[in-house]
């Protein structure tokens, strides 16, 4: 372990892994990152969020080539990354989850593409499941999209249906959002867009960031020749009421922050109708905890939106109309038309 120093000679890319009391994950996943990250073009940095376990001691003993940036306390996911990225000042940054295994030459394709396409500010690799490497991983798969009502989905994953990787998405393409499990981004644009929104706490903060990157005039890309394996789902499994709450609340905040004023009220009104339907579906299943989570999400959204003033810098573009893939309605396509693939 070596402490990060501001006067080091920086390589083009910083691979930043945010850690909080994650000794088990460091031992399981960090060796692949060290082994498969080209040291000529990238530094591997662990930003430690004030861990109280022996993370720092393990890094010092077992990972001498990894740079460590100790933060004074646990700032959470979004603010932890914001502080780490402001402190490190690399041209490009990869936000890499601590539960990700990477493959050889995973950085080079993304660096090469962004270096030769100046309008592209961010990209993501192909993300497969660590527990079944033939299957796409829920949080990102082969690139993220959003429908006209603001529901996120992926090439390779729509709602709970996750596809197996048969090479069907082995083509690079423009996407709406890149997964925070392995987000490659121009540091300057990340900071200009305001970084990750700390008020989101968890879930959809990378979609919010990518939306703002698009509004700055940049593109985001999926690069299929870069491959990583994500464990995922460890903190909040599917069906957990806390996860339901965060997804519903943050989705409303996402729309409120990033839609033009002329479209904001109408879209949020329709979303409330969809969410009301979801509420009654939970009730019909006697799932009262998730039904309460939907109600709480809407109550807290009404309070939290006071923290934002989207009209201070008027937004003129409605990306839900402009962006390919945003014009569909995946609720109707999935539940009524039984469409299960991208």
Low-confidence stretches: none
Report on the biggest sheet.
10 strands, mixed
| Count of the domains | 2
Q: Overall 3D geometry? A: globular
Beta fraction: 15-25%
The CATH architecture classification of the largest domain is: Alpha-Beta Complex
Query: Topology as H/E string?
Result: EEHEHEHEEHEEEEEEEHHEHHHHH
Write down the CATH topology of the largest domain.
Spore Coat Polysaccharide Biosynthesis Protein SpsA, Chain A
Terminal residue distance? 43 Å
* Oligomeric nature of the chains: single chain
Specify the number of helices: 11
The percentage helix is 25-40%
Number of strands: 14
The level-1 CATH class of the largest domain:
Alpha Beta
Rounded to an integer in angstroms, the radius of gyration calculated over CA atoms is 20 Å
Secondary-structure class: alpha/beta
In round numbers, the mean pLDDT is 95
Short description:
The chain contains eleven helices and 14 strands. By secondary structure, it is an alpha/beta fold.
Structure description:
A hairpin with a 2-residue loop joins strand 10 and strand 11 (161-162). The model has no long low-confidence stretch (mean pLDDT 95). By secondary structure, the chain is of the alpha/beta class. The strands form three sheets. Strands 1, 2, 3, 4, 5, 6, 7, 12, 13 and 14 form a ten-stranded mixed sheet that branches. It has two domains: 2-230, Alpha-Beta Complex (Spore Coat Polysaccharide Biosynthesis Protein SpsA, Chain A), CATH 3.90.550; 241-335, no CATH class. It has helices at residues 23-36, 55-62, 76-88, 108-116, 187-192, 205-215, 241-258, 261-284, 288-304, 319-322, 330-335; strands at residues 2-3, 13-19, 42-49, 67-71, 92-96, 100-102, 120-129, 144-146, 152-154, 157-158, 161-162, 173-174, 182-186, 219-230. The chain has eleven helices and 14 strands.
